[in-house]
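Can't attach files on this board, so I'm pasting raw text. These are the components:
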Amino acid sequence: MKESTLLVFDVNETLLDLTYLDDFFLDTFGDTQVMRQWFAEQILYSQTLTLSGRYVPFGELAVAVLKMVATIRSTALTSAQITQFQEEMAALPAHPDAQPALEKLRTAGFEMVTFTNSSAKAGKKVLAQSGLAQFFSQQFSVELSGCFKPAAAAYGSVSQALDRPPAALRMIATHAWDIIGAMACGWKGALLTRAGNAPLLLGEQPDICGPDLQAIAEQIIAADRRG
Amino acid sequence: MKESTLLVFDVNETLLDLTYLDDFFLDTFGDTQVMRQWFAEQILYSQTLTLSGRYVPFGELAVAVLKMVATIRSTALTSAQITQFQEEMAALPAHPDAQPALEKLRTAGFEMVTFTNSSAKAGKKVLAQSGLAQFFSQQFSVELSGCFKPAAAAYGSVSQALDRPPAALRMIATHAWDIIGAMACGWKGALLTRAGNAPLLLGEQPDICGPDLQAIAEQIIAADRRG
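---
Top answer:
Structure tokens for the assembled complex are below.
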């Protein structure tokens, strides 16, 4: 009996709802679209810090990038606003499709873990309060490798800890950059195209792609269940 | 007599005006702000390709990212629009402050080169039509290393080709990620805070920072001229 593929879930936006921050960005900048600008810059600069060997925890970077975006938008930020932002980042709720999809995958016998760009402590805290932690046997953070996804060393630290070959792992994420990085390491990928996201149609594409986690779960059960 | 610091200029947005593309984004998406979303995603994915060992030329990535943004915005792109975008990318005009600042630095005796994320061919073509190529003794592209800025290997390929130690080079750019990468390699940095850009106040900061190239040029002459 062959083991099923081990499922590795990204957390921020894949399982938890980033649009929970929209009201903060609307109140602060007068435009919810600024949330997307902040998040794109956050990922851009996380990669910059990796390429430059300048890793700092994701939450620390998030505040520095928020201040940078505020400067660009000529908006003054109060310390109360920064505290509010940090509190909301620590309280992202689960997407409504997450729990039923994870239940379906658990029932189908899959082992599931998470792998987040957040620090180990912040990642565990936010997943616990979302109610989703129960589905995962382990929770991994990029803190283990000291570099953010999509660096090869980050995925390598997880496959090593799990003691599984890359081809026995599948990364599930709503960001094409995460899937590109995992697939470059030999993992399988599943791209979730939530609103605000789309595939980058360049190079190798994941064999699984869908607009919500339930659609993704059905495709994973068809493709990856063994035994 | 000690040599002056050798000045390495970024090209896109630092010397050439990206807001030339605003009308294209307004016509295509009904919002000039989408230019900033496209550019942030372009840099984000250039870094992803570097971290994943999946380099493709910047111009090819630019079109793939434009299509990704169009999907996110539920906008259909015609092939005529893609051609127009490519033609405008190849025709970015010089920022008005570039020529006088470069003349001032040339008069002060500085050797100047460019270093762009664009391919060698596209980079040379756009700089030639802008009228600024005359100021530079050499033009470098990330094609030389096969990875985009801010990867250490990209800056390393330039300092090696110039046969100068890192501390004798200064990167001048309007993007904090470019300055972070160069400084992590031991170069000096000068951050140009054009509209739409700001410093990331995290870690080591460049000793030179200014809102336009003339202000930057004056600070460089005061700090870096020798002999």
